[in-house]
Write a structure and sequence with these properties.
Blueprint (H helix, E strand, L loop, with lengths): L1 E4 L8 H8 L5 H9 L3 E3 L2 E2 L11 E4 L17 E5 L4 E4 L13
Antiparallel strand pairs: 1-4, 2-3, 2-4, 5-6
């Protein structure tokens, strides 16, 4: 668990502040952590738009990332155009292209 105390009165949004002090976290990850109560301000759950004030106490709980075992599938694709630089595919409605990272 990591803790921070806001030492200036710059009045930044919590999600932007966390991205500055925890450079390995993306803004989307920070927003998800806020929604899941993994980041608290003064021991309270807050929205990503919360504006920090002087002496706010921030607690960040480590997020455990589960390894996902993804295997490629042999799926017939409708190739519309292909050259050395570009591939255009007519994707069927409902076909997943980006599996979810976390639940």
């Amino acid at each position: 668990m990591r803790k921070y105390i806001v030492e200036d009165d710059e009045r930044k949004r919590i999600d932007k502040y966390i991205c500055e002090v925890e450079v390995h976290l993306t803004r989307v990850a920070v927003q998800r952590m806020l929604a899941n109560g993994k980041i608290l301000v003064n021991e309270q759950k807050v929205k990503p738009s919360y504006t920090l004030v002087f002496n706010d106490k921030i607690t960040i709980e480590e997020e455990v990332i589960e390894e996902v075992d993804m295997k490629p599938q042999d799926i017939a694709l409708n190739v519309v155009y292909e050259d050395d630089d570009i591939l255009v595919i007519d994707k069927e409605k409902g076909m997943v292209v980006h599996p979810r990272e976390w639940k």
